[in-house]
Amino acid sequence: MMFRYEEGKVQEIIFFDWQVMRYVTPVQDIVYFIFCCTDGEFRRQYYHEMIDIYYRSLSTMLAKLQHDVREVFPRSAFDEQLRVFGRYGILMGMFLVPMMCTRNEELPDIEAMAHKMAESQQLNESFFKTTESNQEAYETRIRAVVKDCIRFGYF
């Protein structure tokens, strides 16, 4: 987190997620969040609002950095990139939704798996797989991801 102080008081907090840091279009960040961290019902109610809020926030940040959003990244370009990169939601969903549906006590020990992989130079098991206890939740979530990607015109 980064903090902005004025007169010794925190005025703003910005969160950073370094776990999947890469140089990509900002659209991939919102698509990743929407399809991995929300469920179908939430997307039905708030998808368009989330997209609008995200774009307004991005525009505000670009303005603070002294860029003209109409030139650098107009809404039409953002919307076009949503159509192109929206399918990224399905790819990330297939990878992460099983983990999101798994109870904490059933999550694999990533550190132990990394050591095992270093010793054998291969990984013989999936990091995030479905189990009997998460199968129903996984099927519900991933089905909604696929339906929503189709509904929003990504496929």
Describe this structure in words.
- The chain is mostly helical and 155 residues long.
- It has one domain (2-152).
- It contains seven helices and two strands, in the order ββααααααα.
- The chain has a two-stranded antiparallel ribbon.
- Helix 1 packs antiparallel against helix 2 (40-64), helix 1 packs parallel to helix 5 and helix 5 runs antiparallel to helix 7.
In the sheet with the most strands, the strands line up as 1-2
Note the total helix count. 7
Total number of distinct structural domains: 1
Portion of residues in beta strands equals 5-15%
What is the average per-residue confidence, as pLDDT, rounded to a whole number?
84
**Low-pLDDT segments, ≥5 res:** none
Distance between the termini: 36 Å
Tell me about the biggest sheet? Answer: 2 strands, antiparallel
C-alpha-based Rg, rounded: 19 Å
Structural class: mainly alpha
SSE ordering: EEHHHHHHH
Global morphology: globular
Total E-strand runs: 2
Q: How helical, in percent, are the residues?
A: 55-70%
